[in-house]
Design goal:
Helix 7 (210-216) packs antiparallel against helix 8 (222-239). This protein has helices spanning 42-50, 85-90, 120-131, 163-173, 188-198, 204-207, 210-216, 222-239, 255-266, 278-292; strands at 3-8, 13-18, 24-30, 61-65, 79-80, 93-96, 100-102, 106-110, 113-117, 136-140, 145-151, 154-161, 249-252, 273-275. The chain is globular and about 65 Å long. It has a six-stranded mixed beta sheet with strand order 3-2-1-4-7-6, covered by helices on one side. It folds into two domains: 3-132 and 278-292, Nucleotidyltransferase, domain 5 (2-Layer Sandwich); 161-275, 2-Layer Sandwich (Nucleotidyltransferase, domain 5), CATH 3.30.420.310. By secondary structure, the chain is α/β, with parallel strands linked by helices. The protein has ten helices and 14 strands.
């Protein structure tokens, strides 16, 4: 029987009806992220969007993302790394008994400081299914970017970088907002210049000021400066990584961001594989299958 997969984030949610072979039969999207749901309102929002999909007797649903946070529908405690799909399945918790279950997310620690993800873990296991890779580096650009190391089909650990949020703060709320057109499309040359500048020393706090002075002296237009600033930040992020040119690298995310990371990685002679929303549904199917194989399927 087909099942329902829901990715419920901070600002939006999306769902898919998926058959037992993993084929997506239908998709729905809505701007009803957890921040837009009033206290106690999650069941009503879910029923309004997916009630007809859930009508058949015995149909089940897996929910991932921020709906499993303390601000969401039901808090699902994190599953510790290292973890594979079976480990994650064992940490799934019930929302509606034997009908709707919540995926927990993952946690890792770096020198005593915790790191977390919610929703990306499903994309990672889906990317493994789609690419056939059991080892490699999986990069998920977004507001808070994830760099994830996988070995033997298990997520060994990961690190989060606030690159997307820092870009928004600098481009929209700092002095740079006067010279940067944050809505401009990607300018590949200006972006490459920003990535290159990040490797030449000075540090981000100094180099970012150049996004003002390059505009002040009319060396770059506001549209170019947006890509230059993006390149500086992504270049700084890459600079903190230890990258192997022979390693398999998979980018997962929206094209507007994966395109930038692909350009930056290709400058290091690394050609990544690129996936989008399909990774979420493939991962949900992998977890659904893992749950079906346990004694406590859909608790």
């Amino acid at each position: 029987m087909s099942f329902v997969a829901v990715d419920w984030g901070t600002s939006s949610l999306r769902g898919a009806l998926i058959d037992d072979a993993g084929r997506v039969l239908d998709e729905r999207h809505a701007a009803r992220g957890i921040l837009g749901v009033p206290a106690g309102g999650f069941p009503a929002v879910f029923d309004a969007l997916f009630g007809d999909w859930m009508a058949p007797a015995g149909r089940r649903c897996l929910i991932s993302g921020m709906a499993g946070s303390r601000q969401g529908w039901v808090e699902a405690p994190y599953c510790p790394c290292p973890a594979d799909a079976a480990d994650l399945a064992r940490h799934v918790i019930p929302v509606v008994a034997d009908r709707i279950a919540m995926v927990p997310g993952l946690t890792d620690h770096h020198d005593g400081v915790p790191d977390v993800m919610r929703g990306e873990e499903v994309q990672i296991f889906g990317a493994m299914q789609l690419t056939g890779l059991a080892d490699g580096l999986f990069v998920l650009p977004g507001t808070h970017n994830k760099w994830v190391w996988v070995q033997g089909g298990r997520v060994l650990g990961f690190r989060t970088f606030m690159t997307g949020e820092f870009y928004a703060l600098l481009a929209q709320q700092s002095i740079l907002s006067r010279t940067v057109d944050a809505a401009a499309p990607l300018d590949a040359d200006a972006f490459a210049q920003g990535v290159s500048r990040s490797t030449q020393g000075g540090g981000l706090l100094h180099n970012a000021f150049g996004a003002r002075t390059l505009g002040l002296f009319e060396r770059m237009s506001p549209a170019q400066l947006a890509s230059y600033l993006s390149g500086l930040l992504i270049g700084e992020e890459l600079r903190s990584q230890t990258l192997d040119a022979h390693a398999d690298v998979v980018l997962i995310g929206a094209p507007a961001l994966t395109t930038r990371y692909a350009l930056a990685l290709e400058g290091l002679r690394i050609t990544p594989r690129v996936l989008g929303a399909e990774a979420t549904w493939a991962g949900a199917h992998a977890l659904h299958t893992a749950l079906q194989g346990t004694d406590t399927a859909y608790p």
